């Protein structure tokens, strides 16, 4: 209860304020959230409140370098993918986790090859398990697009056999996910030709 309440309070305080987000990052807020999520890995409410806070801290446009670095240094992406694996049926957790990965990957490389592989696997699993949820499809596809810059990610994505899930997302949600899916499929196609 305390962990969830702390994450919720920080999320409310941080929402929309670049200054407060940077203060939360500077005060060790990211480390505390990652630690809470690690300790309470099977508590849906702690995971969701932690992901909500991380998503808030990661998405303050151009003002969150400190938070991005703090998440990287705390190996927070591993905690995010662990939450995705442990709570596959929880669409809210999947949505927020995809959002964290998207916001993070727009600004920084994911890090270890193990984390890279887990990101691709978890996002593909989310896309397949929640095909009717527009936010999961949009955020997941956008995150994959930002991840496929490196050939390592392309190889991991190809290993997941993404074509059916991406085509489905593009057909169901052409305006929100279609463009991301098209770009990913074109990138994969060009990589396979090489």
TrEMBL record:
Record's InterPro entries?
ARM-like (IPR011989), ARM-type_fold (IPR016024), ARM_LRRK2 (IPR056597)
- Signal peptide limits: none
Protein name in the entry? LRRK2 ARM repeat domain-containing protein
Where's the LRRK2 ARM repeat domain? 32-176
Entry-linked Pfam families: ARM_LRRK2
* Top-level taxon in the UniProt lineage: Eukaryota
Q: Which organism is it from?
A: Pseudictyota dubia
